[in-house]
Each structure stands twice: as C-alpha cells, then as structure tokens.
C-alpha cells in the first residue's frame, strides 16, 4: 500500500473513564466478542481494557481499535473457508486497526473477491474510511480488481466519496486498469476530482504512462488542459518522454505552450534532439489542421460522455469515427 497522509490518534489521547480504561466512540457498528455483561474486551497487554461505549455514554455494539485480527488476516490472504467460520462464530467484520483499516479494506486491496462478498454479506461497512480517508472502493481500484469494484458498487459504495486525497478514479488510473476506469466513469465518477498531490486522474494516468486509461478519460470528456500548480498532463508526458502520449494529448487539444509554476513549457522538460523534443518541435511548426481543430471544438461542446452524444448524431459513420478518435 502506498504511504498516505493522516493523523493517528494515540491511545493516550483517547478519552478515559474514571477507572482509567479507554472509552471508545467509534461509529462503526460491531458485534462484541465474548460473553458477560460488562461488555469489555482485552486488547494487547493484559492490563489494557477497552470499554465499548456509544457517543451518548451508553454501552453498545460498536467497532474499536485493535491489532490485526484473524478476520483481517483471512480477508487479506483470501482464506474464504476460515473467514466464513470466523463470521459464523460471531467474529466482528467491522473491527478497525489503529490505521482504521477494516477487513473489507484488506480484502479489497488484495482483490479477494470471495472474501469481499462474504464480508459485505456479513454487514461490513462498504464506505468505511481508513486513517487517510480511503474507502474499500479506493483499495479495490488500486488492486485493479474489476470484480471487487463491481461488488462494492452493487452494495452502494460511493464512486465520489468526499475525500481530500486520491479518489477511486485516481486509484484505478494508478493501477492502470482501463476496465475499472471505464466502469467508474459509467457510474458517474468525477473526471476532474482533484488531489493536492496527484492532480486529476488524467495527471495520474499520464505520469504512470497508462495510455489506455488516458484515452478512456479523454474520450469521456476529461479536461486535457487541467492544471495542478499550472502543470498540465502534457508536462507529465514530456517528463516521462512518451511520444505516443504527447501525440494523443495534442490531438485532444493539449496546449503545448502551457507554462507551469516554474514558467516552463512541456517541451522544456525534454532533451535536445530526443524523440519527444522533436515531437514538440513538429507541433510548434505544424499546428493542428482545421478538421482537427473542429474535432477538438466539437468534443469540448459535447462535454462529459461526449461519445454517447456523438454516436447519436445524424452524420455519416466516417465522421462519427473521426470525432470518436477511431
């Protein structure tokens, strides 16, 4: 898993009861393991007790911070039989580690479809957040597992969760799964979701040189000139020196004269006489043709999911293919 950003709540910072035991107010619903009326559990050291309390102070069946549990391990490793037994024996599927990682996060990140199915059927929270706010759908997209993504979406996972970090679409672009990218777009993923570190999904796909994902995004109406600190997708393409990527972005209307926060054009990031430098030099000397400019303008006018609109136009198939970049 990629390093992410977040603030850990240390045990010493958590509220405590008069007896000195940690009082937990996590919103995750969870069955309490064990017996007895005290509703307390031991975690880690024998001296550490944790009272399970609701926000109003009453005892309740809620989730809490723990070390990795057998449920986490089974979910991560794809041990479906073991996971089924744990669930049947009353194991909680919503327990979260100190990083707020649930078993559903683990199974999704590893692309363990059957485990995801078992956990969801047992009541796993589909939009649970880990310490940096990422949901199981983000993790499933990071794994590139289209089946896990479909399962989570069918159980109501939000395709555009309110995140300050990478969205599910960002994660799919990082993994290079054009199938996941297409599915997310079909169910309404925000093409311009912005991450303060990565920029838009198009920035991510270009930085990782996932050309299939780039084309899916552009055909869906992603803004080819969207900027992150004034840095466009073409800047990324220039930095990775990918001529095919540069050509694709320019064909879709990428601005070869755009300047980033350093005042540099995309071509400024290429080596003299390199293939990418020659490519930029060609486009500077040979602007797009009138037909290409018309295509760019029409695609901008059709907006998001423009392909669907273009396919319905009463024009010759040859023109539809041209406007669809086929």
From TrEMBL:
Q: Name the PROSITE patterns on file.
A: ANK_REP_REGION, ANK_REPEAT, SOCS
Positions of ANK repeats: 66-98, 99-131, 132-160, 164-196, 197-229, 229-261
Q: Does the keyword Repeat apply?
A: yes
Q: Give the keywords, sorted.
A: ANK repeat, Repeat, Ubl conjugation pathway
Q: In which pathway does it act?
A: Protein modification; protein ubiquitination
Q: Does the keyword Membrane apply?
A: no
Q: An example of a Gene Ontology BP annotation on this entry?
A: protein ubiquitination
All residue ranges annotated as the SOCS box domain in the record? 282-326
Q: Which InterPro entries match?
A: Ankyrin-SOCS_box_domain, Ankyrin_rpt, Ankyrin_rpt-contain_sf, ASB13_SOCS, SOCS_box, SOCS_box-like_dom_sf
PANTHER family, per this entry?
ANKYRIN REPEAT AND SOCS BOX CONTAINING 13, SOWAH (DROSOPHILA) HOMOLOG
Q: Give the family, as the similarity comment puts it.
A: Belongs to the ankyrin SOCS box (ASB) family.
Q: Mind telling me what this protein is named?
A: Ankyrin repeat and SOCS box containing 13
Please spell out the taxonomic lineage of the organism that makes this protein. Answer: Eukaryota, Metazoa, Chordata, Craniata, Vertebrata
